[in-house]
Amino acid sequence: MAQAKNGINGGFSGKAGSVIGYTVRGKQVMRSVPRKITKNPSEKQLAARARFGLLQQWRSPLTSFFAITFKNHTHERSAQNAAHHFNSGIVKGEYPNYVIDYSSIVISSGNLPFLTNLQLDASDKQNVNLAWEASYESDAAANDLVAYLILYDQHDYFDGNLNAVERGAGNCKLTLNYPEGCKTAHIYVTVLSNDRERAANSAYLGKIELP
User: Fold this and answer.
1) Measured between alpha carbons, how far apart are the two ends of the chain, in Å?
2) Could you give the CA distance from residue 160 to residue 65 in angstroms, rounded to a whole number?
3) Is-contact 153 207, C-beta < 8 A?
4) pLDDT, tens digit, for every residue of 23-46?
5) I need a surface site. Which of 29, 58, 82, 105 has the fewest CB within 10 A?
6) Which CATH architecture has domain 43-209?
7) Domain range summary for the chain, segments of one domain joined by +
8) 99 CB contacts (<8 Å, ≥6 apart)?
9) How much is the pLDDT for 155?
10) Which of 18-32, 39-53, 119-133 has the highest mean pLDDT?
């Protein structure tokens, strides 16, 4: 049974016929009751489900990480929905042979200034060094947090740090812990405000491969 809120002209919560009412971030929302599908899915539907499933499989282990890096989008959607939105195009290929395009992955999006003249030194493929100018624009701060994510090709294992160093440090060292049987690591960097309320557009710094 649905319950009316604020009188007959207000929203409602619960099920009323073929419609469900509920509240999301203070807004009244309605959606239709899901219908049971009995016929076999088409190949197009199977492809869409496989694409969505691979994206969810990739995103799920990163839930806690994205809860912080996409926190600045929670006024309009959940952090996980934001992560899904900005990464909806990372699944490439033809059904059923879908793969993740690591170069397209976004770990944050926002208007906080990124690091100035960021350079990556991967001469040691297991101990990578990042360096940037410690100076910053007026819209940034020395205590902004440098965050990074390391994804290992075709593995669920990853390394990440949401508070590696502050912007004013000017450099950061990353240790790459390649899982057994993996020789490729993909590196992503972003910047978060100290209160985690703002974020920069993240950058993909490329892949590093063991010989």
Assistant:
1) 64
2) 8
3) yes
4) 666 666 666 666 666 789 999 999
5) 29
6) Sandwich (2.60)
7) 43-209
8) 91, 92, 93
9) 82
10) 119-133
